[in-house]
Amino acid sequence: MTALLEARELTKRFGGLTAVDRASLTVEEGTITALIGPNGAGKSTFFKMLAGEIEPTEGAVTFRGRPITGLGVARVCRLGIGKSHQITQIFPNLTVTENVVIPALAARRGSFRADVFGSIRRVDGLAELVARTLAEIGLGDRAGVRAGELAYGEKRRLEIGLALATQPQLLLLDEPAAGMSPAEIAETVALIQRLRAEVTIVIVEHDMDVVFGLADRIMVMQNGATIAYGTPEEIRADARVREAYLGGADDA
């Protein structure tokens, strides 16, 4: 398989605190990679460095062999990396369709413009992209509904849709099943399984059933460093992982 993204020896310090300590990851094209670890392991900070949200103190990130360290989240997104967030960042007063139009146009044209909602019919393929995205996330019949009126699980799927609308090659999902009911989790897992046919995925997730049911590879972090990386079977069998995470305190 081809390496789509590589993070080499990433370190992030905040003053005297080292949140991530020389952590590395290779993401192969066409796979689902999960990032897990106990509370305070550095997962979120590492994830934000992959997305360009924060710059590492040391180390480098490459995407399709191109250095992307320090480019910032907007440029990283336009290169083909999309990210959903742990805390839903939708526009509650806009319709579901309008929510999806914004990132779709931003990926094509750059920063926000005042004519954003008048552009959907004037931009070639945009209406089709929006409709396809809504169908993929199961919200095609909710297109005209205000996003704030959606059920929680629908809002979380819309958040994934915002990332999908940028047509990423790599999709970063930050706790996609957080706070969901069992039925909503099942819907989200089914969605991610469908998406794997078209986009490479990296997830941070607390629900171990979700992680072991989806991931081809799992990276385990503790105290800012990588302590294990391998298949779900290898991670289950790793004594360090059982001690640090799977058999220890719950992640928070």
Structure report:
With 252 residues, the protein is of the alpha/beta class. It has 2 domains: 1-80 and 168-252, 3-Layer(aba) Sandwich (Rossmann fold), CATH 3.40.50.300; 90-165, no CATH class. 35% of the residues lie in helices and 25% in strands. It has a 6-stranded mixed beta sheet with strand order 6-7-8-3-9-10, sandwiched between helices. α3 (96-109) crosses α4 and α3 runs parallel beside α5 (152-164). The longest helix is centred in the middle third of the chain and has 14 residues, at 96-109. Residues 248-252 have low confidence and may be disordered.
Condensed summary:
This protein is 35% helix and 25% strand. With 252 residues, the chain is of the alpha/beta class. The chain has two domains: 1-80 and 168-252, Rossmann fold, CATH 3.40.50.300; 90-165, no CATH class.
CATH architecture of the largest domain: 3-Layer(aba) Sandwich
Total count of helical runs of at least 4 residues? 9
Give the CATH topology of the largest domain: Rossmann fold
Tell me about the largest β-sheet.
6 strands, mixed
- Summing up helix and strand content along with how strands pair, one would put the structural category as alpha/beta
Helix and strand string, N-terminal first?
EEEHEEHEHHHEHEHEEHH
The first-to-last residue Cα distance is 34 Å
Taking Cα atoms only, what radius of gyration do you get, to the nearest Å? 18 Å
Strand line-up of the largest beta sheet: 6-7-8-3-9-10
CATH class of the largest domain: Alpha Beta
Helical proportion? 25-40%
Report the uncertain regions.
Answer: 248-252
The CATH H-level homologous superfamily of the largest domain: P-loop containing nucleotide triphosphate hydrolases
Q: What is the count of distinct domains?
A: 2
Overall geometric form: globular
| Overall number of strands | 10
Mean pLDDT: 89
Q: What percentage of amino acids are in beta strands?
A: 25-35%
